Amino acid sequence: MGVKLGILGLGTVGTGTVQLLQDTTDRNPLLQEVEIYRVGVRSLDKPREVQLPEGVVTTDLESIVNDPEVDIVVEVIGGLEPARSLILQALKNGKHVVTANKAAIARFGDEIFTTANEAGVYVLLEAAVGGGIPVIQPLKQSLSVNRIHAVTGIVNGTTNYILTRMQQEGSNFEDVLVDAQRLGYAEADPTADVDGLDAGDKIAILASLAFGGRIHLEDVYAEGIRQVSKTDIAYAEKLGFVIKLLAIAKLHASDRSKLSVRVHPTLVPKAHPLASINGVYNAILVEGEPIGQVMLFGPGAGAGATASAVTSDILHLVATLKTSTANPNPLLACRHQDYCEIAPISELVTRFYTRFLTRDQSGVIGKLGTCFGNYGVSLESVVQTGFQGELAEIVVVTHDVKEGDFRQALAEIRELSAIDSIPSLLRVL
Ligand SMILES: NC(=O)C1=CN([C@@H]2O[C@H](COP(=O)(O)OP(=O)(O)OC[C@H]3O[C@@H](n4cnc5c(N)ncnc54)[C@H](OP(=O)(O)O)[C@@H]3O)[C@@H](O)[C@H]2O)C=CC1
Ligand SMILES: N[C@@H](CC=O)C(=O)O
Ligand code: NA
């Protein structure tokens, strides 16, 4: 007997998934067991790229999650509500759920996984992080015998696409964002991408899997790419770096009972493996013991890539439904109950790149050095790079420093009469 799917959403990801399921030749034969039974959308009048039999498509999404015939609900509508309520209702009705919705999982994971565990069903979310890259299952299974020290990723396709085109073509931020939207990479509200919130949701999910505890999303520091200018990209290039929006979860430097979980634009040395990840590609570098470093790389967004991840989850569940036992499979279920302790960003120890615009006064560099010295900030390089009108431009790269100390030094520097402004402040990997 076939396994019946109720798919919520027929946009970029839903359409890609239906296309994949309607073309099963040379794919895993288990896919032939899957029937696209119901599909829920917002508007019945919209032109669609896929054809479905009469009566399959509906705007009544609740009827899908409540339909006793549906075995697996695939949630690809996105957003928080009604996605959360529909997922919970499906789980309570004993249906397995596949979702690509990192925003809902990062916020309501506790409620969703608890409900799933109580109902004895699974929530699979491979598409929620890294698009088509298998990263959730590897962290849950293949890599889970390691002690993980750090997960560092480029996990937002939209911003990586924007930064790459700004770097390679000198393109303008807004124009490239429009292209990313047209290509189906961006969220319905692209501020989630641009402001680092989408990457924040994703690193919260990865941290939870890698470090074995739940994450309060409000503890995750997230900074986006709006402040990254063409000027910074050009200076970074001269200094031997590329600027990437990195999502980082690692054991805290001085207190290994805490985690540091954060998203921010970062100067990445050109020789680092993440420096060459361009366009919509994502990569996640996992460091652990005894494995060392593993980098998972691939397309981070887009219809086909994301459909690959969604459909692989469907396949897992089809296999599970066919071999179902009374006890849940612990490799598929969520095993976390407790929350991780997250260190505040002020405790982060990192290098900084900072660009100052200064007035033409003598001894400015000396004054900067004194302020930094007052807070134990030592400098790796100081370069006076040129002029912007009347103002001299000075670029500073520090050695490792505690972010709180560095911010105090900057507060003192801002008070100097020689300082006009500090247009850029970026962390260096
Ligand atoms: N796009 C990508 O590359 C990736 C997306 N994701 C995630 O996948 C999910 C879906 O994204 P994507 O396909 O891009 O989104 P789209 O905006 O392209 O599609 C959303 C679909 O859901 C339907 N929908 C939305 N809200 C409702 C509602 N309230 N009631 C009924 N139907 C609704 C829409 O219906 P209608 O068509 O009638 O408007 C549409 O078919 C999101 O969680 C996203 O974060 C994850 C990885 C990559
Ligand atoms: N908007 C997201 C889509 C995939 O998760 C991105 O750009 O990475
Ligand atoms: Na993935």
From TrEMBL:
Catalytic function, reaction form: L-homoserine + NADP(+) = L-aspartate 4-semialdehyde + NADPH + H(+)
Molecular function (Gene Ontology), one example: homoserine dehydrogenase activity
Residues binding L-homoserine, per UniProt: 187
Binding site for NADP(+): 8-15
InterPro entries: ACT-like_dom_sf, ACT_dom, Asp/hSer_DH_NAD-bd, HDH, HDH_cat, HDH_CS, NAD(P)-bd_dom_sf
Record-linked PROSITE patterns: ACT, HOMOSER_DHGENASE
A single BP term in Gene Ontology: methionine biosynthetic process
UniProt EC number: 1.1.1.3
Active site feature: 202
Pfam families: ACT (PF01842), Homoserine_dh (PF00742), NAD_binding_3 (PF03447)
Residues of the ACT domain: 353-429
Isomerase in keyword set: no
Record-listed NADPH binding positions: 102
Cofactor(s) demanded: a metal cation
Top-level taxon of the source organism: Bacteria
Pathway assigned to this chain's UniProt record: Amino-acid biosynthesis; L-methionine biosynthesis via de novo pathway; L-homoserine from L-aspartate: step 3/3; Amino-acid biosynthesis; L-threonine biosynthesis; L-threonine from L-aspartate: step 3/5
Keywords: Amino-acid biosynthesis, Methionine biosynthesis, NADP, Oxidoreductase, Sodium, Threonine biosynthesis
EC class (word): oxidoreductase
Family indicated by similarity: Belongs to the homoserine dehydrogenase family.
Protein name: Homoserine dehydrogenase
Originating species: Tolypothrix tenuis PCC 7101
